[in-house]
Amino acid sequence: MEGFNLKNTFFSCITIIVLVLSMLFFYEPAQNLLCSYAIFERFLINTPKVCSLFDTTRLSRYNGVDGGKIYLSILGIVFDVTEGRRFYGPGGSYSGFSGRDASRSFITGLFDEENLTDHVSDMDPSDLIGLDTWLNTYKKKYKEIGKLIGRYYDSSGKETDYNKLVFEKIKSGKMAKEAKNKEMAQYPSCNIEYVQENQKSKVWCTTLSGGIKRNWIGVPRKLQSLDENGKLSFRCACVQLDTLSKAELVHINEYEDCDASATTCYVKIS
């Protein structure tokens, strides 16, 4: 009889657990059993742990309507921004971000169908760096609660190839930006002023030209370089000729009708 009662108690407990999980599944449909268990665990022992994987349908529920929680995603990472309700809630200036991943809109500032998307791999590296800055800002300000299944993470929460491509572009963009900053320190930009009388531009160097404070002046030269997006361009730079190697001088050209040692020249800049 005692064994029978234990058996009944065991099956009763299993039945109760199944019923609770079923109720929770109805309350918040889950992607898998682990998600249901995480929600069950939250209610059972009052921990902040929740299912960390969202699909687009589940995420869309957290848009702040009727005073509910507000979540958003950036590059596939989900944040709880409920404390910023006046910005992200219905009618708020950033409500377009709520309940979805609108990573592209963080850069474009547009909230139409074309921009309310998480597709960003076609954007310039400088834009992707800006988006990465947004991501890090949210990590500091809001609680990171999970990942969005789709473009950036698969159904098990692992990074997708698309995710790796975007972050590789961000990494490459940061390296290019760092190289550009070093270049600007070595070759500060000239001061430039267009002179209407002779339809030429006055270019000149000082110890502060280009916003780079230094103890040398340099001379104006036409410098061939790459911008932050990897595109070839020319700009007027102040250079210290006696510090440059032959390899470095290859990318530097004199302006026509400009004395080689002059710190000020009048040139045509296309």
TrEMBL record:
InterPro entries, A to Z: Cyt_B5-like_heme/steroid-bd, Cyt_B5-like_heme/steroid_sf, MAPR/NEUFC/NENF-like
UniProt keyword terms in alphabetical order: Membrane, Transmembrane, Transmembrane helix
UniProt entry tagged with the keyword Chloroplast: no
Top-level taxon: Eukaryota
Coiled coil regions in record: none
Domain named Cytochrome b5 heme-binding: residues: 54-149
Keyword ATP-binding: no
Pfam families per record: Cyt-b5 (PF00173)
Any single Gene Ontology cellular-component annotation: membrane
TM spans (from-to): 9-27
Similarity-based family: Belongs to the cytochrome b5 family. MAPR subfamily.
Record-given protein name: Cytochrome b5 heme-binding domain-containing protein
Organism the protein comes from: Aphis gossypii (Cotton aphid)
